[in-house]
Amino acid sequence: MSGIIIALDEGTTNAKAVALDAHGAVVAKCSRPLNIQTPREGWVEQSGELLLDASLAVLREVIKTVGAERVAALAISNQRETTLGWYRASGLPIGPALSWQCSRTADFCHNLREQGLDAAIKAVTGLPIAPLFSASKMRWLLDAIPNGQTLAAHGDICLGTIDSWLLWHLTAGQAFCCDESNASRTQLFNLHSGDWDDNMLQLFGIPRRALPEIRPSSGLFGHTRGLSGIPDGIPVLAMIGDSHAALFAHGLGAAGCVKATYGTGSSVMAPVASAQSAVKSLATTVAWHDGERRVYGLEGNIPHTGDAVAWMVENTGLSELPETELAQALNTLPASVESTLGVYFVPALTGLGAPWWDEDARGLIHGLSRGVNRAHLIRAALESITYQIADVVVAMRQHGDFALHALMVDGGPTKNDWLMQYQADLLGCPVLRSDVAELSAMGAALLARKALLQVDNTQLRAFLPEHCTFQPDMARHGRLQKRWFDWQNAVQLARAAK
């Protein structure tokens, strides 16, 4: 019973540790909730110290459960783009962790667009200019403290994403690294050279000495050291962004298998052959580097999907229900009405992501009439998830390497059968749901197992989870196109309400 890999999955709303045995089965898990602060409109942040404390707590608990002597390796999957700075000497943060949802750098990004830099930045990094990505957040953190630039240039400050923050503390500051998938979300990474780009560093004002070393997603990053309840010497053998990890766990990046992770926000990602893309509204990113080769991904990021439903739940009184009753209500309420009665909810609560990239857009509920009740509003919130994902898929079809045979889905909202069937009918393709709640953790663990056993990807297929399939009703698919068109009109109204 050796060969357990523990994946530390640090997300936006919780930190999880998941232990997988030599057969890939989950044998232990632990979770801790995480808080989000919104001190000003559009500002979204978390405490880096609390993220770390929760991560170490769940890791200790799972190690205690399975026995330290059985743990062969650790893996990390993490919320992406969220950015921290910390003092190299003490490991203490220089400020809050700026969430991927945070739009406080919108003005800075607007100025870059006004200078006509969008095309040049996307050609190098694969990413459109948006406050979502880490580079402008790093710049904000340095500007927010005295002598930030000077300290960073001297190497006294570290800047990184969540993976590098966790690794630093797991290894007592001995390892300052990030993986290619996380690096590719910063807007400082050159997709073609596989390294930090000097022009991007200069443009955003980020000293190279403040940034971590970039490594493949699968391989040795360092060893645990100096932590109570966590033995020294456990190797960290994989680090990867959570959305990328989910794509890997779904099907190891098979062509035509497009992945949508439904969480607080959503990532729609398709594996593609190269970094070359003419689709301006989507990001090209590194899906992962598995130690043998770099795999690229075409991606659209949507800030508010599950978050949109949570907002509507809170504002219709459903949040008072116990968790099991709430889950049942979210399945039964939308099915209890034939339509939304013309209501469309555009959840641009901190702006719109892909394919619009409009941080100035504001959310709206359009088409209210006297007959609208809670069921119609909940249905409109759930439908908004499917429309936003479909909008990204339409943009993806412009890419020469793109194919869609099935939409492979994961995340908490996918437990809603009504939502999954609506998504299949809207897109007109099968939706394959993984019922493994720990899919991101599983993907990271698979990459760690690849490094541990020195095997190729074909030997990992036996570890992949099963899927539940929702087949599309093609007659309904045709009828839903009118509603999708009306949704897009509502989006334009949200964009006009600046």
UniProtKB/TrEMBL annotation:
The keyword Glycosyltransferase does not apply. Keywords: ATP-binding, Kinase, Nucleotide-binding, Transferase. Residues 4-248 form the Carbohydrate kinase FGGY N-terminal domain. Coiled coil: none annotated. Pfam families: FGGY_C, FGGY_N. GO terms for molecular function: kinase activity. Residues 259-450 form the Carbohydrate kinase FGGY C-terminal domain. This is ATP:glycerol 3-phosphotransferase. It comes from Kosakonia calanthes.
